[in-house]
Amino acid sequence: MPIETTTALPGTPLADAVVHLIRPVETPSVFNHSIRSYLFARLVATRLTLVAGRDYEDDLLFAACAMHDLGVARDGPHRQRFEVEGADRAAEFLVAQGVSAAKADEVWQAIALHTSPGIAERRGALCLLVREGVAVDFGGPLGAGHVEAITDEQAEAVHAGYPRLDMIRSLVDAIVAQAAKSPGNAPRYSIPGEFLRERAAFGRTRLEHACRSSRWGN
């Protein structure tokens, strides 16, 4: 992918509507993470020879990546684990934008499963790419399979457009705050459940510790 298009967003009415939805309700750090996840997912797609319009729909990939952390948005109901809450909100929003229920359900699956390694990869190209895009943005600790395929030039362009802004701490803070609002938000052994337990027990999650040595840092 030419470096000048590395940070290009779809620019479609649906993509613009998604940005308009998430920007006011997510921290700048989480918003940038969501957009970087899409940009990295698109680079992973190129590496896997997955083609937009044939193997996946670019608008849906953008929507799923951009809204994958909508469950920790400040205006949410915060009554379910954040992955499911975000998936529900995203699917409802897409249907309201005229997206078919079937396509909205594809996005629902991709968001709901983005913290489920070994499952997301088995549920089609969209789920795979969202999971891998998110993983690449963590720089290694969530799975380093495609991190090294990103060139330094590509990474610099992505981070220049969407700086990290202490992303790991900011995102974990948001997940823990959402998880603490109800026992149902943090089932044991789920990501939110473990983050909440580790923060209470140790003051820092294992993910935060691991990301200190990730390719991108925090």
What is the typical, i.e. mean, pLDDT?
92
* Annotation field: number of helices: 10
Estimate the global geometry from the Cα principal axes: globular
CATH class: Mainly Alpha
CATH architecture: Orthogonal Bundle
Describe the model.
- This protein is mostly helical and 218 residues long.
- It has one domain: Hypothetical protein af1432, CATH 1.10.3210.
- The protein is 55% helix and 0% strand.
- The protein contains 10 helices and no strands.
- The protein has helices at residues 13-22, 28-47, 58-66, 82-96, 101-112, 125-137, 152-161, 167-179, 191-202, 206-211.
- The longest helix has 20 residues, at 28-47.
- The radius of gyration is 16 Å and the shape is globular.
- The mean pLDDT is 92.
Notable characteristics:
single chain; 218 residues; mainly alpha; Hypothetical protein af1432; 55% helix; globular
Helix and strand topology:
Layout: H1 13-22, H2 28-47, H3 58-66, H4 82-96, H5 101-112, H6 125-137, H7 152-161, H8 167-179, H9 191-202, H10 206-211
Helix pairs in contact: 1-3, 2-3, 2-6, 3-5, 3-6, 4-5, 5-6, 8-9
Kindly summarize this structure in a few lines.
Helices cover 55% and strands 0% of the residues. It is an all-alpha fold.
